[in-house]
Amino acid sequence: MSTTNYPSATTQNQPPKKDYKGLIIGLLAFGLLGTWGYLLWNNNKNEQTIQTKDQQIAQVTDAKTELQSNFDAALARLDSVTGNNNKLEEQLAGANSEISKKKAEIRSILNKKNASDAELKRAKELIGELNDKIGALEQQVQELTAQNQQLNTDLTTEKGKTTQLTQDLSNTTTQKVEAEKKVDIASTFNANNISVSPVNEKRSGKEKVTTTAKRVDKLVIGFDITNRIAQSGNADIYVCITGPDGKPVTVEALGSGTFTTREEGSKLFTAKVAVDYEAGKQKHVEFAWKQNSDFQRGNYKIEIYHNGFKIGEGVRELKKGGLFG
To answer: Residue 211: which residues within 8 A CB-CB, separation 6 or more?
Structure first.
């Protein structure tokens, strides 16, 4: 057999090569599946963690919301208790600093975005303490309200008594005034035995009653006064003389003036006579009217007043006189 450097067209029998392609593909597929599984597991775990965090955040948010709601309710109670009771508000002044501190600390915690459980627990304790104080204040309000109601009841009762006493006093005062008025009227003197004597005064000092007008120097007026209930003491008697011309006889320089009567109003008087009266006894009064002008012919009317009432009256005529008047 000849040899040559060219390959033969016939093949020689060689052992088959191992094929790892399927194995590699399988391993890659397995690895890929494992990676996907891990990714799915990790993603699921992350979602669970996020859900847990969300739940925790939701719980914290709910807790803060509940605490805020409780805090707002406590503040509303506090305003309701103190805003409508001035007396309690005065009593609250001493504890107001402590309450303000609690309110500030609670607000500080609730305003935090990431408040811890310990801080929320502290806020809850503070709100509880605040509610306890408000509860005590509400109890005081109830007690004060009950006291006020009792005071109002007592005041109403006392007002009723006062009204009744006022009415009784008014009635008593009216009765007293009426009684005093009756006594006052009843104590007015009675004048009796009224006399008017025209008197002529002679140079010798002797006096003689005369009816001749031109000879009259004075009118002596006398009367008796009596009263059963009048008290002892000084009294003023007013004598009013009306001349023949119908005009009141008054001389201011001699003490004439005006006084008030019960029935005639203001009236001119000729003379005011002071009388010292003794209770239960008759008193004789006499005085002389001597004017600074001549007496005229005609009738002189004499009226006597006491306590505003006219108690007596008399008339005396003065004549022209003798043969030659």
So the answer is: 198, 317, 318, 319, 321
Backbone angles phi, psi at 299, to 5 degrees: -90, 130
- Beta bridge pairs of residue 221: 196, 287
Q: Which two tokens stand for residue 260?
A: 């008030």
Query: Do 237 and 273 form a contact (C-beta atoms < 8 A)?
Result: yes
Chain segment 238-289, per-residue pLDDT in tens: 999 999 999 999 999 999 999 999 999 999 999 999 999 999 899 999 999 9
User: Do β-strands 257-261 and 309-318 pair in parallel, antiparallel, or remain unpaired?
Assistant: unpaired
Alpha carbons 1 and 136: distance in angstroms, whole number: 129
Q: Is the pLDDT of residue 221 over 70?
A: yes
Question: What is the reported pLDDT for 261?
Answer: 96
- Of 190, 178, 188, whose CA–CA distance to 307 is shortest? 188
State the residue for tokens 């009675």: 190
* CA angle centred on 165, ends 160 and 170, rounded to 5°: 125
Q: What is the pTM of this model?
A: 0.51
Separation CA 243–CA 254 (nearest Å): 17
**Chain centroid, CA 316 distance in Å:** 68
> Contact 195/221 with Cβ under 8 angstroms?
yes
